[in-house]
Amino acid sequence: MKKLAIGLCCAFALGSTSMAFATEKAGGCGIGKEVMAGKTGLGSNLVAAILNNILIPNTFFMTTGILGCDTTKTVQNEQQGETFVASNMDTLAVDMAQGNGDHLAALAAILGVTDADKPAFYSLAKDQYEPLFSASGTTPATVLTTLNTAMLNDTRLSQYVTQ
Amino acid sequence: MLRYLITSLALFFCCITVHADNPDETLSRLIAADQYDQAVKDIEHFPGSHLHELITRARAQALWNEPTWQKLLHYKKNLLGGYTSQVDGSDFFNATTGKTNPQAEMEATLARFFSTAPVVPTTLPPQCRFIARYQWLKQKLEFDVSRMPNDRCVPFEELRDALQPEAITIIFPSAHPNSPSSMFGHTFARIDRQGQVRETRMLDFTINYAAQVDSQSTFVYAVKGLTGGFQGRFNVLPYHLKLREYVQMENRDLWEYRLNLTPQQVEIILQHAYELIPTYFDYYFFTENCAYHLLSLLEVAIPDLDLTDEFKGWTIPVDTLKLLDKKHGLVASVTYHPSSKAVIESRRAALSTQENILATQAYQQGTTSIEMPLKTLPPERQAAVLDLAFDYLRYDKIRNAAAIGSDLTPVERSMLLTRSKIKVRSDPPQIPQPTTRPDQGHDTSRFTVAAGISNNSGFTQLGWRAAYHDFMDPSPGYAWNSKLDFFNTELRYHDDTQSTEVHKFTVIDILSLEPRDNFFKHISWNATLGWKNRAIGNQRHGALVMEGGPGLAYEIPFLQRSLAYGLLQMGGEYSNQYNNNAIATAGFLGGLLLKINTAWTAHLEINTRHSIGSYELDLRQIALKQSIILNKEVSLTIELSHIQSMGHEYLEASGGLYIYF
Fold first, then answer.
1. Is B259 in contact with B324 (CB distance < 8 Å)?
2. Which residues of A touch B156 (CB under 8 A)?
């Protein structure tokens, strides 16, 4: 039975199903990480950076390991890729299995794949579905690594792999 | 003698100059000590300072009265003719009287711009923390940057470079009636990146105003939300997270309204959002909610327009969209993004009966259960069956999960693995945009004028409803299967008593009918709170009524948008007419909702109520209501009821007009 609260608009827009989004706690990569609570992989560093920079000194890009963020990465495609995969593992899996979809297209954009090469990218992702998602212990990092390896072996797509 | 006089005078003046403090140092000391109000108060002692120049220029034009300043500080005229800022975080103000004094706030802010000490609780210096104010004042008062601290704000620049803002789009997740939390919908802003295309929009960031709630009992939750008990804050999240939250999670259609703003306007909005993120407003559901504060953020870019002033009593998201589009022509384009429920319905319609059976079976029993029959189908059909089956799995998971992780279940994995081996690429379902957008629906307030006969005596009726939508209102732009009445007053002048009575005063009345089928298994429900004139025998008595309950609804076959429903009702009523002033009630609410054609809707409803434990209320009412749309603002309404109460029965009939405004 749904809550019969006289709840109108907005405050509850975050909803009883997603209270995690509403709370702001420090820790890990800061607010961003809590926002992503329940999802595997790195917290959203970009989000964390935007929110946390208000409270934390220095640069926009996290450079201190104390905050629980990877110190070698900056907010570039690579990290953004991992962030995006982390929060969209399921929808990406669906899109890859189906060979099409908005989330897969967004990932292609993150990786810098041009429009002309997108069909090749989608086909590759579909063919790689089993190694990408079926192994136990699949994490966003492994998804990207496996994807990158597959792309390296493809003449059209190897140019998009950052070494 | 004269020489002596001159010497001593010279010595005197010399000593004065030597011992007098350097004025600039004193001013700097005041500013370094966070004494901005004092610095302003004493400004005449520092006539050569740049701050003095700036304050003089500001005073010459009474710059604090300009709309931009008023909007940057969120000042509103209060009842005493003065100003109060709606911002409630004290860190937002630099003057001790900043919340109520625009001039003091401007001058203290100017003083603060000579400091570089971080503005707690952030680590940003004032030029950065109050970047929108700084940039505007810098241009208006012609700051001499050589006499002021370095104003480069690297964190903001990095933010801007990461966002690459080109446009602002308002996102409107449409109402999802089966959840009370989303009745009125919601609005938030998305910062569209330069060169954005449809697929990459999910990589954009959003600015969202919401109450910071913690787990509370439902009642406390409601009370706190209505009375400013929660803090409302702006937050920034990637759009793909919001998509998960709205489309997939809560099955709401998303509408994107891209605004017509110049790059300068987008910049000032981003700057102001940056200023607002660390602070908070007291959150009020009806008045200062997400839609309201989204407007208060946008207003700073268009100071000549008063957007928030249009909303005095309550702010309904769809009304804010109407304001932006119809009144001010600020909407450049609108895009529709269907909910996962809409996608499921579209996929189902594209499959044959046999294929639908297979999809349902795969969802219920796993992919292997349909392995053999699936292989007999051509690859495209196999793909279509599995795509629908997977949608069912996802929908179920989303509905039942307390929090959505992005992990796949083993059942999902196995289905996707099978799917991936079918060498067919899925096409996204082509779901046409509904002909009427939410902002093109009827106006949310409604006026009723009617006349009729009840129990052999005539009556005239006047009604006024603050918001929102019911079955008798034109459905385009709204959910057709739900009703939400909010502050609905009906007055009747009865010929028999020659008096005017409050026939009904509804605080809130929600009826959510979600049709069930072999997949969607929602429970329908209603909840009402208000004052009603109850028929008790041959008399009418007013009572405060609270009632509601669960039930089921089904679509009527072969008819579009028509429902049959039945709900159990339980409640309580309070009136000095009842023996102990109060009774508990039980009953039944059922009906048929028929959409005869685009203009004509008929609604047959039966409503029974019985007091529990005593014979004080025994009511059965069968009503046939019809409405005919005359035009966008006016509908014709006809009602016929049979009322039976405590052995008496009578008829009531009326006709009238609904006028939307």
1. yes
2. none
